[in-house]
Each structure stands twice: as structure tokens, then as C-alpha cells.
Specification:
CATH class of the domain at 356-532: Mainly Alpha
Strand order of the largest sheet: 3-4-5-9-6
Distance between the termini: 71 Å
Number of helices: 26
Shape: globular
CATH architecture of the domain at 356-532: Orthogonal Bundle
Structural class: alpha+beta
Radius of gyration: 25 Å
Helix content: 55-70%
CATH topology of the domain at 356-532: Neurolysin, domain 3
Length: 681
């Protein structure tokens, strides 16, 4: 039987792909690619048609097969899948390292770059060639031959360490359970969260209630549980995951140290002062110093508001809650109480109006109105019964397709993300439509009732859908710069953060609401209270993000890679934070964005791109003055044309200028966040 992992004729046969298919499939694809590379690097006169096009087409086979394996590792991390992934990870990493260091291939790209054909290529193809030359240099192609084996060894080791970091975190998260036998300890926790905890206990064959460190269980306890001891125990367990306080084989301490040392060594081999300098080469920002100045300036602006937020919280906790010693495990709980007292609503109240089906309908309606497309369910094999599949059409033509995997599972890594399965391209005179994965970790339906989302979860869903639209609505047919490909990392969050803004619009939110018991839409007075509370503690939230970004950039700015992560996070907190976790808290050990994801020396991009996204959304606010709604079709068309459609085919700053007619300005972000400096205390 044909290996289903190698069947590229249609969508993946997720119902048939098994871990035992991984090794033979990947080995076959790698063998075919190596044979092709040997032929192409010997071409006497390389050009687009005889060199770049066949190399990219063949590379898509590996992207497709290995992408499915990596996806399964993230959403179905069972022992067999983990073993299959880790067994082939070094081989795949080695191939990419060899490719990046192949001086003959580098020479072929340089011939095209420096040759007469280059001027005749379309701008998108020119950008692909330029990016390839840059990436070869960053991959060590120009290193002396005696240094290349060490550089390749570093890449393989870093891949293995990143995978191990993520697995340790997942295992440590899954390992902890807080068992409750006394119903009195459940006071304050929402009913459906309690029901889910009861179901989890029953699944384990036990009485009582089982709470875990997965977000749908952990966060409601921290926000609503009246039992302070329960909050403290869960906070400590969450804050010490994958550290020396747990199972030794899940401790990420040495993984962090080795990752930093290897990244610094890699940077030196490439001739850069630090890994931060290497990371910023393909980004919008010009240097680590420029980013640090941006972050420090934002911290200067935000900290007075954060200090005011904390002072208000402490005063309220002391006067209204009888809590004179506010601790980190009290912050979310006391904040929820303060928000309810000040604005007469809670996240749980709003959640009763946001059933999954209405939220999805509302999300799709926003997309359809902005971009003139239609979204409808479609058929495809999936990796889990909860996963759904949709198609996007415009004028009767298929634009793109996506899988939607919304619920948390023990075998799924935490967080939310967009992944790619297929890129837009022409194949045999037919257009291949892009396909994406949209993955979240929300609470699943319990007791036959529909899942209900918090407003924060709705924002997360819109965020990931923004990434998805960037991939799915591209009009570029060259995969290397199609969708999010080729987009500078610190601009890639623009479409995702842009989408978040619609979650605060009345005509959007009311359209996706229906009360759990009455079916009534969200009342206007409740919405008005939500808007009044929109910037509740925005100062504290902002400095928290700046803390992470500064920690990341300074950690990777060490030329030797020997900075003590825990010492640095304390130093950064002394500058920007207003809430300081206990000494035993081990945040770096779970910071998978920078140790197991693609955000190393790039976490700042969230705040950097937030300036871009807020300014972009301001164009829709301006259009609403005339059209009466931010769901303005003509502005949506321009955003599609100038931002989403062009992907990475031109520099992000040029795309932004084409949409806004000027450079980005921070005014909209400060206004949206309620942090205009003139109002600082």
C-alpha cells in the first residue's frame, strides 16, 4: 500500500497516517531531494525555470510531509508520534543545514542575482532570490569548510533541544493534578468548569474534582476560586513547571543554558556580536539597540499606568476583600472582583453570551463582509473527532481551506497557533489553494451543552484567524513569498492583532452573542460596561509583555550566551514590572516562544506589530465615520490588496505605506490602550 504520508494528490489522509509511516516517507523524500540538489548545483547556466522552480517544487514535498508530522507532534503528542517525530528530527535538521551550507547552491543563486536575468524577473521572484542569498549567508554557506560540520552540529542540537524543551513542558503540565474532595473548596468557580473537573475525575475513575494546569482549568481557578490555598497551590505548580522543583528528567534548566550557549556560538561563527544581532537581520527592526530603545521607551510610558493599576488593586483588596498582603496568586482573583465592582460585570457573565456556534458565525461574517468571500463547512479527514474543516470561496472560486481544532487535550501542546499545510502556487496549470491549521486550547462542551468562550478566548480566536487570513487570502503564486512567507518576523503579527480590534465593536459582538438560558443577545448596557473596562489594568498588561520582550532580547544579546536567565528576569522586573513573582517562580522554564518556537530575540515583535495593527485599524475607524461601521468593504478591500494579498513579496513597511499612505505612528495604540501620556497620574 502506498505510504499515505507521501500521497500529495489531495489533502492528507489523517485517518490513515500512522507513526510507522514517518521514517520511510521522510527518508524517501530526503533521498529524492538530495539527488535533485546534486543535479541542480552542477547546472552551467542556472536560471529561474531550470533551477529555482524545480528546487522549490521539490522542497514542497518535504514541507508537506514533514509539516504533517510536526503538526501531529503538536496536536496528538502520543508516545508513538513523539518517538516518530524525534527519530527523524535530526535527519530533517541535518538536511536543511546541509542545504543552507551548500556553497555550490549558494553560487547558483548568486549567478542569478548578479546575472542579466535578474532584472527581467517579477518583483516577487527578485525578492525570493534576494532572500535566498541572505539566508544562505545566515546558514553558514560562506563558512570555511572545516567549520561547517560544527555549524551543522549546532543546528541539529538546537532542534533537538527545542523539541525536548516543549515536551518537558507538556509532560510537566500533564503530570500535575489538584484533587478536590470537599465541595466547599469549589466556591466561586464557574459551574461548567466544575463540571469539567468532575468529568476529568470520573475519567480517571475517582470521586471528587480534578483540576489541571491546562488553561481551561487553571485560569478560571485563578480568577474565581475563593479558596486562597487552592489558588496558591496551582500557581506554584504552574510557575515551577519543567524546573528543578519537579521531575529531574523534565527540568529545562540545562536545556536553557545549552540553547543560549549554542546560539551565541552560532552567531560568532557567522561574524555577529550576538544571537540577537543574527535574529534581526531578516526583520524590520535595524538593530538590537533600536529595539531596546523602543521597548525602554514603551516601558517608560506604560509603567506609571501600571503602578496606578496596582495601587488601585491593593487598595481594593485591603478595603473590600480583607487582603492586606496581596500575592501574585491573588492578583487575577482580586482583579476580577475589582472589575466586577467597578463595571458591574465579570468575564464569566460575558461568557454566558458567547456560545461557540454563534462566535464562529460572527467571526465568519466579519471576514465575509470585509473581503467579499463566503465560508462554509467542507469534507476532509481529520486527526481528531473534534476537528472541523472549512472552505473559503470568492465569486465561486476556491480561495483557501482551513482545519479548526478548538479544544484543549492532554496530548496537545498549550497555547494557540496557525500552521500551514499548503501554500498558494500554480501546479500543472492549476492553482493550488492554500490550506491552514487553526489550533486553540479552549474548554470543550460538557454535559451536552455547547462550549462557551470567554471574551479573551474570542480575541484569541480572532487573532489566530488573522494569521490564517494572511496565509489564505494571499494573491502571490510564489510560495517563498506567499502569505506569511518572506514577511519580516516583527511584522507578521500585524494581521492577527488587527483582527482582535473587531472583538470590541458593537455590531460584531452583538451579532455573535446568545445567552445560555434566554437566547438573548448581549445587552447594550453590558457591552458599554465592557468598553469602559476595556483598558482595565492595561498598564499592568503592557509592562508584563515588555518584561518578556526585554528579557528575551537581553538574554540573546549576551555575546557569550552565559547570562543567568533567572538573574536577568529579576533585573528586568526591577526596571519594568510592578508585580514580582516569588523567588521560586521559574518563568523562563516555560517560555516556549523563545526556547522552542520561532521568537528567539523576536518576542518584541508582538508590541512592535501592535503599533502597526492599531494604526491599520484606525483606517477602519476613520471609514466608519462615513459608512457607519468598521466593517467597511472598500477599506477591507484595500487592506486585502495592500497587506494580506502581497504577503512577503515586498518589504512590510512598503505594504503598510501603501495601505495608510504614511509611516506607522504609535498614537492609535496609545489611544486604544488608554495610555495617552497626558492622562498619566
Amino acid at each position: 500500500m502506498t505510504n499515505p504520508l507521501l500521497d500529495f494528490s489531495a489533502l492528507p489522509r489523517f485517518d490513515q497516517i500512522r507513526p510507522e509511516h514517518v521514517r520511510p516517507a521522510i527518508e524517501q523524500v530526503l533521498g529524492e531531494l538530495r539527488h535533485l540538489v546534486a543535479e541542480l548545483q552542477a547546472l552551467p547556466a542556472p536560471g529561474w525555470d531550470n533551477f529555482v522552480a524545480p528546487l522549490e517544487a521539490a522542497g514542497e514535498s518535504l514541507d508537506r510531509a514533514w509539516g504533517v508530522v510536526a503538526h501531529m507532534h503538536g496536536v496528538m503528542d502520543l508516545p508513538d508520534w513523539r518517538d516518530a517525530y524525534n527519530a527523524m528530527l535530526p535527519e530533517v535538521t541535518r538536511f536543511y543545514a546541509e542545504l543552507g551550507q551548500n556553497l555550490a547552491l549558494f553560487g547558483q543563486y548568486r549567478k542569478i542575482f548578479e546575472g542579466s536575468e535578474f532584472a527581467t524577473l517579477a518583483p516577487a521572484r527578485q525578492r525570493i532570490i534576494e532572500n535566498a542569498v541572505r539566508d544562505f549567508r545566515l546558514s553558514g554557506a560562506e563558512l570555511p569548510d572545516d567549520q561547517k560540520p560544527r555549524f551543522q552540529e549546532i543546528q541539529e542540537r538546537l532542534s533537538a533541544l527545542g523539541a525536548k524543551f516543549s515536551e518537558n513542558l507538556l509532560d510537566a503540565t500533564n503530570a500535575h493534578a489538584e484533587w478536590i474532595e470537599d465541595e466547599a473548596q469549589l466556591a466561586g468557580i464557574p459551574e461548567d468548569v466544575v463540571a469539567a473537573a468532575r468529568a476529568a475525575a470520573e475519567q480517571d475513575g475517582r470521586e471528587g474534582w480534578k483540576f489541571t494546569l491546562h488553561m481551561p482549568s487553571y485560569l478560571p481557578v485563578m480568577q474565581y476560586a475563593e479558596d486562597r490555598g487552592l489558588r496558591e497551590r496551582l500557581y506554584r505548580a504552574y510557575g515551577t513547571r519543567a524546573s528543578e522543583f519537579g521531575e529531574a528528567n523534565w527540568d529545562n534548566s540545562e536545556n536553557i543554558r545549552e540553547i543560549l550557549r549554542l546560539r551565541a556560538e552560532e552567531a560568532h561563527m557567522l561574524g555577529y556580536k550576538s544571537y540577537a544581532a543574527v535574529s534581526l537581520v531578516p526583520k524590520m527592526a535595524e538593530s538590537p539597540d533600536q529595539v531596546l530603545a523602543f521597548l525602554h521607551d514603551m516601558a517608560r510610558r506604560a509603567k506609571p499606568f501600571a503602578e496606578r493599576d496596582l495601587a488601585e488593586l491593593r487598595d481594593f483588596a485591603a478595603s473590600e476583600l480583607g487582603l492586606d498582603d496581596l500575592q501574585p496568586w491573588d492578583a487575577a482573583w482580586a482583579s476580577e472582583k475589582l472589575k466586577h465592582a467597578r463595571y458591574s460585570f465579570s468575564d464569566e457573565l460575558v461568557r454566558q453570551y458567547l456560545p461557540e456556534d454563534k462566535v464562529l458565525q460572527g467571526l465568519f461574517r466579519v471576514i465575509e463582509r470585509l473581503y467579499g468571500v463566503t465560508i462554509a463547512p467542507a469534507e476532509a479527514a481529520t486527526w481528531h473527532d473534534d476537528v472541523r474543516f472549512f472552505g473559503i470561496h470568492r465569486d465561486g472560486a476556491l480561495v483557501g481551506q482551513f482545519y479548526l481544532d478548538l479544544y484543549a487535550r492532554a496530548t496537545k501542546r498549550g497555547g494557540a497557533w496557525m500552521g500551514e499545510l499548503l501554500n498558494r502556487r500554480h501546479k500543472a496549470d492549476q492553482l493550488q489553494a492554500p490550506v491552514a491549521y487553526l489550533v486553540c486550547n479552549f474548554s470543550a462542551p460538557v454535559g451536552g451543552q455547547p462550549a462557551r468562550f470567554t471574551h479573551d478566548e474570542v480575541i484569541t480566536l480572532f487573532h489566530e484567524c488573522g494569521h490564517g487570513l494572511h496565509h489564505l487570502l494571499t494573491q502571490v503564486d510564489e510560495p517563498a513569498v506567499s502569505g506569511i512567507h518572506g514577511v519580516e518576523w516583527d511584522a507578521v503579527e500585524l494581521p492577527s492583532q488587527f483582527m482582535e480590534n473587531f472583538c470590541w465593536e458593537w455590531d460584531v459582538l452583538t451579532d455573535m452573542s446568545s445567552h445560555a438560558r434566554t437566547g438573548e443577545p448581549l445587552p447594550r448596557d453590558l457591552f458599554d460596561r465592557m468598553i469602559a473596562a476595556k483598558n482595565f489594568q492595561s498598564g499592568m498588561q503592557t509592562v508584563r509583555q515588555l518584561e518578556f520582550a526585554l528579557f528575551d532580547l537581553m538574554l540573546h544579546g549576551d555575546p557569550e550566551g552565559k547570562t543567568d536567565a533567572m538573574a536577568l528576569i529579576r533585573q528586568v522586573r526591577d526596571e519594568v514590572a510592578v508585580i514580582h513573582p516569588p523567588e521560586w517562580h521559574r518563568f523562563p522554564h516555560s517560555f516556549s516562544h523563545i526556547f522552542a518556537g520561532g521568537y528567539a530575540a523576536g518576542y518584541y515583535s508582538y508590541k512592535w506589530a501592535e503599533v502597526l495593527s492599531a494604526d491599520a485599524f484606525a483606517a477602519f475607524e476613520e471609514a466608519a465615520g462615513a459608512s457607519g461601521t468598521v466593517l467597511d468593504r472598500s477599506t477591507g478591500e484595500r487592506f486585502w490588496k495592500e497587506i494580506l494579498a502581497v504577503g512577503g513579496s515586498r518589504p512590510a513597511i512598503e505594504s503598510f505605506r501603501a495601505f495608510r499612505g504614511r509611516d506607522p505612528q504609535p498614537d492609535a495604540l496609545l489611544r486604544h490602550s488608554g495610555m495617552q501620556e497626558a492622562k498619566a497620574a
